[in-house]
Design goal:
It is a single chain. This protein has a six-stranded antiparallel beta barrel. Strands 3-10-8-5 form a four-stranded antiparallel beta sheet, with no helix packed on it. Among the domains are: 61 residues, RNA polymerase II/Efflux pump adaptor protein, barrel-sandwich hybrid domain (OB fold (Dihydrolipoamide Acetyltransferase, E2P), Beta Barrel), CATH 2.40.50.100; 62 residues, Helix Hairpins (Orthogonal Bundle); 154 residues, Beta Barrel (Elongation Factor Tu (Ef-tu), domain 3), CATH 2.40.30. The protein has 433 residues and is an alpha+beta fold. The chain is 28% helix and 34% strand. It is elongated, with a radius of gyration of 56 Å.
Amino acid sequence: MPLPAPRRLPCCFPLRRAGGLVAALGIALLHTGCERTPPAPAAKAASAAAPAATTPPLGAAQATAAAPAAATAARQSEKDRARQNTIEKVPVETAVVVRGPISSFLSFNTTLETEAAVDIYPQTTGQVETLFAEEGRIVKAGDPLLKIEDSELRLDAEESRVNFEQLQRNFGRSEDLFNRKLVNKQDHETQKFQFDQARLRYERATLRHAYATVRAPFDGVIVSRETQIGARVAAGTKVFSMVKLDDIVARVFVPGRYLAIVAADQPAVVTSEFLPEKSFKGWVKRISPVIDPKSGTFKVTVGVRGGKPTELPPGLFVGVRVITATRESAVLIPKRAVVYEGGERYVFTVTNDLTSKRKLVAGFEDPQNIEAVSGIEPGAEVIVVGHSGLKDGASVRAVNALTPIPQAPEDSATKSPTTPPAATPAPVPSGKL
């Protein structure tokens, strides 16, 4: 059986026809490219000259841009170096060594007392009628403090006065008669005896009546009132306590080894933690000549002057420094500058921002300063803050010694006026005008 003939696809072109189309397309493209006319040489020259006339040379532009960049880089480099030097230096605070007075002293803690402190008792019995003073009142000697009911005492005094005046008149007549030899001596002496007895009874009654008013024994202040109106008091009943505030003392007990260096009238300084900004002058008022065998100390009484009664009341806890010697022109270093190392004391001095560690030979000391006996001269700069862990020869920067660079004031005539921005009206809430 014969095979069927192959069928041709209707969508495919014959190979011969396809090759002809490709050749025709190539010839058309070649013909189009050959007909394009190249630009003239003059036009090319004009086109090249136009951008050259508006664009600067490349070398000049680079030089112009490089000049400010180099200056900025140089300034930044200087700032970086300065900042680096500042960072590397240790910031410290310094003080200048000066000459001044300093004292050696013995220091104690005690409480203030008064030389005159008394409890007041009435000298008669009766009921309290009136009070004239209260706690805290400053009184003068003789001021009345209270009065006891005195009706009976007043009558006794009045009766004694009348009897005394009668006998006084009788004795006057007897004296006249005796001088005229009209009365014998015995009768005259009897009249005189009766008169003297009446006078004594009158004085005693007057004194008892005066005792009904209790009065202040000296100038001072009432520290307590122990009775009230209507209370019955007797001779053994305490009614007031008072002290004398202008005679304040501090009693301290000094070790016996200092007996030879403590003397009467030596100056002293009294301080209190309640008044940290103030100190009060004192002096050695009395010295006990014996040493207590139990404690090994002797008593020194220090007088205090210059304080107000409200500043130095009795019972106040104070510090007392008895000054035993003074040097008027000592080399003084702040105690904050001292560094303790291995049982020795050192200070760091600063010269040209470099430290020097020096051993301190100390003399007298007070709460703020210490005397340098040798090795450090007045005017030296010592470190008072920042010396912890510091080494000899370290580079430092004294922050408290830096002086700010003065800023030139701006000339107001050259400043352009500033116009404040116009105010922007606030939005009106919805529904309101």
